């Protein structure tokens, strides 16, 4: 049944292209004509993840997607979330069997619950439901690496942070906007990815638009898990596992990727 659903509702490519990756208590099942990626309620501090992706076993340079294309997803999330969830394209910076780690590159819709705290875009909270992009693989981004410790120190002064981080944000290709739609209602989410920009839509409403975008290649991923991360420009870092007090899930009724 799941193979038939994958073949019909996840386009393009045959069902065999899509990997189902379950860790800990993560599970995947059909639910009301959708596939449900879920993590059940549990007080355990065990990492759990339910995920589908299309890049398993590939080297990062072989990931399947480059612009121009359009991703369309009909989805809904559980009202409660303890961890992260979302869908879109990324470069899986620490993927096994792909050589050394890479700086992050992503275009996606992303939910982050507290205590997640990743305030990488000025004026946008470090958690919440977002349309987001980061393109840290460029030479503009990498030129900040030698002075990263100094940037952390200077960011502790609010006035310097505002001036300095606007430049860092530009060079790292960071763009974010909060999504105000209720996450637990069915919505049509779209990412239009071009070589000279990108646009995120919920229904017919544009929620984020940029004039730059990664060149790829990237892979598609959709997931729900129970981890959190903290990475503030002032140098505060952290990572951990959230206890899941309520069942949490991501329902996908359709995923379509069209070349433009």
Describe the overall structure.
The protein is mainly beta. Helices cover about 15% and strands about 40% of the residues. The chain has helices at about 1-10, 140, 150-155, 160-170, and strands at about 10, 20-25, 25-30, 35-40, 50-55, 70-75, 85-90, 105-110, 130-135, 175-180, 185-195, 195-200, 205-210, 220-225, 225-230, 235-240, 250-260. Strands 1, 3, 4, 6, 11, 12, 13 and 17 form an eight-stranded mixed sheet that branches. The protein is globular. About 35% of the residues are buried. The model has no long low-confidence stretch (mean pLDDT about 85).
List the topology elements.
Layout: H1 2-9, E1 10-11, E2 19-23, E3 27-31, E4 34-39, E5 49-53, E6 69-77, E7 84-90, E8 105-112, E9 128-135, H2 139-142, H3 148-154, H4 158-171, E10 175-178, E11 187-194, E12 197-202, E13 205-210, E14 219-225, E15 227-231, E16 237-241, E17 248-259
Parallel strand pairs: 1-17
Antiparallel strand pairs: 2-5, 3-4, 4-17, 5-14, 6-11, 6-17, 7-8, 7-14, 8-9, 9-10, 11-12, 12-13, 15-16
